[in-house]
Design goal:
The complex is a heterodimer. Chain A is mostly helical. Chain A has one domain: MetI-like fold, CATH 1.10.3720.10. Chain A is about 70% helix and about 0% strand. Chain B has 15 helices and no strands. By secondary structure, chain B is mainly alpha-helical. Classes of the chains: A mainly alpha, B mainly alpha. At the A-B interface, helix 2, helix 4, helix 5, helix 6 and helix 7 of A face helix 2, helix 5, helix 6, helix 7 and helix 8 of B.
């Protein structure tokens, strides 16, 4: 995205119509504003109806009971009490945090390591870049159904590979011990392409002189990685970490399609619970209360992310 | 490797790579990486395409056969008819194309107004739009769904209408921000010159701003089409009528009672447009990826 190269117009034409009369100037201001709001009105309507209004309504709904027949009823903190009394509430948060934590360990470290290695390779770069990104393009439902088949403990691809290399097969989605890990693997496989390519782009901006200077000072490979590569990409790493936390805390498609929350509720996530409250029990008040809690949990991360990206841009 | 110049200097020096031991190590690492990458990212997709061409008993056998005993290419057409994929394909195209056109029609003028026409309160409007980015999308799921079931002021129910996807998609602050930031770089003098030549705001936007903005329009277009094609949770909520569902929602609904070979064929078919789009627009997509997330 380069700035368009343009020839500056002659200064004389710029001030060709000085407006001196205050009334004319006022009329000009009004028509200019009307034009501007004409351009803005479609966006304002869409934001008002489907973004700003729902935000306010969501907060109000958290303290209401609605059945869409009688008017909404104020119930105070009752929706939150319902949530806290639900044994699945704690389970869902624990599961979600486990997913986010595992996704950070796997999904954060792996793409960075991969990017560092790819950056050193001088051949088949286009191939690597292409295949690592293809899963990102696949619809998440396709990925989820496909991996459900791979995870089949019998003839599934993964256990077949394990057996071929002489390792014991796993239960994957069928056991509460490995179900969440299995979902993290799918999510990482599907999304690591974008992280990898973003890191790769960041690595390419590191000035080569830094490495040369470090090497002259006797820094070994590990020291160069530790003191040059990582500090130089620190900002991108931080941004990606925040983005990943916000995204993984909202995990829904994988558990919904692959496990339905099982086995033994081991993959019930916050969003899956929210979905159940809203669309299975039709309890929109309690679902909104849960949304509000999710927002509070993630608001800090999103705010920090926005601040960092906007001030650096 | 002799072509490596010092400007491309990375973690490992080209000098090390030229040494015998370095070269040996390089090719060793290269071989490991290419094998791992192929196993991780190519084999699963090939396995899916091969699986679609195996018979049901063959898919149930353990250990699995490497290649289909008698490749049934017809599985793809069979799946197409069995799940009536033509219908869901059309639905998805309508949803994605509509989302794209409406987003451009809404977001481009808005970004142009905020960048160049600068109305009173423009800064506040932009801030209010950007503030919505702070909210995780799922925190708004319930109230936005309710706003769709009964649109405020208008009182209509948009459930089971593609507009239920198009209109909320248009309220995308990120795209408006990307567009505005690009428009900001177009010199105001150029627009003033057009205005003095008698061009109105619409003409200026259409004839001057848009032709200069092709790169960012490509990025926003790709973002919106890909997002609409991939989306699952929102269409799952608002497109309840099977007649209007998108591929993702339909495939998920069919999954429990469809023979696995046909299901796999369906997955392949649903993936083709996105993979093809990636192969064609790879450059723009990857440029958008870094533009969108790093520079933000």
């Amino acid at each position: 995205m380069s700035t368009p190269t343009l020839i500056a117009p002659e200064p004389a034409t710029r001030q060709s119509r000085p407006v001196r009369n205050p009334a004319t100037r006022l009329r000009r201001t009004i028509t200019d504003n009307l034009t501007a709001y004409g351009f803005l009105c479609a966006a304002l309507v869409c934001f008002a109806l489907f973004s700003w209004y729902p935000i306010i309504r969501g907060v109000l709904l958290s303290f209401q009971q609605v059945n869409f027949v009688t008017p909404a009823e104020w119930v105070g903190w009752q929706n939150f009490e319902t949530l806290f009394a639900d044994p699945l509430f704690g389970v869902a948060w624990r599961n979600t945090l486990l997913f986010t934590g595992l996704a950070l360990v796997i999904g954060f470290a792996v793409p960075f390591a991969v990017a560092v290695v790819l950056n050193e390779l001088r051949h088949a770069k286009a191939y690597f870049r292409l295949i690592v990104y293809i899963p990102v393009m696949l619809p998440p439902v396709v990925v989820a159904i496909l991996w459900k088949w791979f995870y089949d403990p019998g003839p599934g691809l993964l256990n077949s590979i394990l057996r071929t290399v002489g390792l014991p097969p796993l239960e994957w989605l069928n056991s509460a011990d490995t179900s969440m890990l299995s979902l993290v693997i799918v999510a990482t496989w599907a999304s690591m392409g974008s992280a990898t390519l973003i890191y790769l782009a960041a690595l390419q901006t590191i000035p080569g002189e830094l490495y040369e200077a470090a090497e002259l000072d006797g820094a070994n490979l590990w020291q160069r990685l530790r003191h040059i590569t990582i500090p130089q990409t620190r900002f991108v790493l931080l941004i990606m970490m925040l983005m990943q936390i916000v995204a993984t805390m909202q995990v829904f498609t994988e558990p919904y399609v692959m496990t339905g929350g099982g086995p033994e509720d081991s993959t019930v996530t916050v969003l899956l619970l929210l979905y159940r409250y809203a669309f299975t029990y039709n309890d929109f008040g309690t679902a909104s209360a849960l949304s509000l809690l999710l927002f509070i949990a993630l608001g800090a991360f999103s705010a920090l992310y926005l601040r960092l990206t906007r001030t650096r841009g | 490797m002799s072509t490596v110049d010092s400007s491309q200097r990375t973690l490992i020096s080209p000098w090390t790579l030229r040494k015998r031991r370095g070269r040996l190590l390089y090719w060793l690492v290269f071989a490991v990486v290419i094998v791992l990458f192929t196993v991780a990212f190519v084999i699963p997709l090939v396995w899916m395409m091969l699986g679609a061409m195996k018979t049901a008993p063959e898919l149930a056998q353990n250990p699995p056969s490497l290649l289909p005993a008698s490749p049934n290419v017809g599985a793809y057409t069979e799946a197409w008819e069995f799940m009536d994929l033509a219908k869901y394909f059309t639905n998805t195209v309508i949803v994605a194309a509509g989302a794209w056109l409406i987003q451009l029609a809404v977001q481009v003028p808005a970004a142009y107004a905020l960048s160049k026409l600068r109305p009173a309160l423009g800064k506040w409007i932009l801030a209010l739009m950007l503030a919505t980015l702070m909210l995780p999308a799922s925190a708004l799921l319930v109230p936005t769904y309710l706003a769709i079931t009964e649109v405020p002021v208008f009182g209509v129910n948009l459930v089971n209408s593609p507009a239920a996807i198009w209109l909320p998609a248009a309220a995308n602050a990120f795209n408006i921000y990307l567009l505005k930031r690009f428009f900001d770089q177009i010199p105001t003098e150029l627009l003033d010159a057009a205005r003095i030549d008698g061009a109105g705001s619409i003409t200026t936007m259409w004839r001057i701003v848009l032709p200069l903005s092709r790169p960012i329009l490509a990025v926003v277009s790709i973002f919106s089409i890909v997002a609409a094609w991939k989306d699952f949770i929102w269409p799952l909520l608002v497109l309840q009528d099977p007649e209007i569902q998108t591929l993702s929602v339909a495939l998920q609904r069919f999954e429990p009672d469809t023979p696995i070979n046909l299901m796999l064929a369906g997955l392949v078919i649903a993936s083709i447009p996105m993979v093809a789009a990636f192969l064609v627009f790879q450059r723009q997509i990857l440029a958008g990826l870094t533009a969108g997330s790093i520079k933000g």
